[in-house]
Structure formats: C-alpha cells, structure tokens
Amino acid sequence: MREGIITRYEGNIYSPNIEADDYVLQCTIGCSHNKCTFCDMYKDKKYRVRELDEIINDINLAKEYYGDIEKVFLADGDALTMATDDLSTVLDYLYNSFPSLKYVGTYASTASILGKTLPELIKLQNHGLVEAHLGIESGDEKVLSDIKKGVTYCEIVEAGKMIREAGIRLFATVILGLAGRTAKAFEHARNTARICNDIQPDYIGVLTILVQPGTELYEKTQRGEFEVPTDMEIFEEMRAMMKGLYLENSGFTSIHSSNRLYIEGFLPADKGEFLNKLSLVIEGKDTSNLRSPGKTL
Q1: Of 73, 98, 129, which residue sits at a domain end?
Q2: Structural domain span for residue 14
Q3: pLDDT one-digit tens code per residue, 191-204
Q4: What is the pTM of this model?
C-alpha cells in the first residue's frame, strides 16, 4: 500500500467484523465519550473532528490507490458527531468518487444520534448513509451505570428508533457478561432482550466481555470487584436473552471473535433452532461447534 494511504490514519483503526473488507475513512479521531469501563479502543487518542479538506484529501488518495470500491466505513468511534452538512458533503464526495459505491456505514452513539434532528438524519440517509452501528451493550440501567455508558435505557431506545425512522439501517451490538458472575447477570440478559424488543434493530450482534489491560474494568477485576463469567454462564446468559427476544424481523449474529459459540440467522424464524443449539451446549450434549476463545473485543 502506498505510503500516503498508510500515514493518513491516526492511531489504531477499528471497524465491525462484518465491515472488515470495507475501505475505512477516518472522519473523527477517537471517541466522543471514551469513558466506558470495558473499552480500550481509543484510550490513546484525544477526540476531535477532522477538517473537511483532510477527509476529502483522504478520499482522493483512496481513489488513486483503489480505483473504485463498493463499501466504505466511517471511523473512528463516532463519525456521526460531524456537522450534518459536512457529513453530507463527505457522502456526496464518496459516491461521486467511486461509481460502484453501494454502502456507507458508520459507528454511532446514542448521544450523537440524539444530537441530530430527525430531518438531519433523513438528510444523511438521502445522501447515502446506509447503516449505523450502535453499541447498546445492555438494557439494564444498573449495568449501564456501572460501565459508565453515559446514557439511559430510554435515551438508547429513542436513538435507535430515530435511526430506523430515518430509513438508516440499524446494527445494534450487545455484550454478554457485563454484569459479572452475579445474580444480576440474568437481569442484564432479560433487560437487554427487552431493549432490543423496544427498538427492533435490523441486526443484532452479540459480543462477550473480554477484560482488557489498561481499562477501568481490568482494575476492578484485579481488586476482586468484578469476576468474569465462565463460558457456561455466558451461554446461559445468551439463552436467557434469546428467550426474551420478540422481534419482527431482525438478523442475529454471534460471529464476533469474542464468542465461543457461533450462531447466525434471523429472528423470529430461527429462534427455536438457536435455543436448541444453546441448550445442547449447556447440557453438554453437543460441544462440537464451540470455538477457541477470542483475544480481542
């Protein structure tokens, strides 16, 4: 890859697993919140929105190198914090630069979504923003407070509904194990199902908590204030969540490397199959599909 493409990125670059083959365009640096106790992704960066001309120059470099592309993902942690007019300009420039472009996705936070009006979100959809990846993490108020998510259940629901009302596809992520090895774990699972039912995301991605050195959650584990659930407890959480999901038509995946059990399909059509697979694993009748533990969140 040409030097210009490499040196334009600042720090480590992240995108969802399913966007691994996308061209990643860095519109913001770091995360606008950056206080979640479990996350180490942007601790080395100070949040800022990049200048519009820098972003346009990056698109020109990408066009020079790649020629044409079909998918783009906007980074870092929350590109939706950009001013609506500037983000619309970026979207227009992308589609004008790459004739084959079919998809532009972005990370989004509850705060950045609620910082837009519905007409602004609709404008972004009209300019080609296809999908937003929203980290719900949990539907449990205590867990949300414990992990310093900075938003409430009701605010997350409002944000999720706004994205869908704007016609932007919503990919929501949740994290199993955030309540630790406590009786609260099943409340976390059931309330996470409840928040998904309230929002009705187009797709739900499930992750499993992996405690990373350098995070506040890691320090809590070192002090004995948080205990990571066992694999079996995670499977039981997932089953409790699955039982509580009542979705009209949502994709569901646990393909993330943090998970030991891979399931993917659609709800409600595949709910029975998912529950059966989870039960077979929990009861020890079929562990053939278990994967090696993941190394990153």
Answers
A1: 129
A2: 1-129
A3: 999 999 999 999 99
A4: 0.90
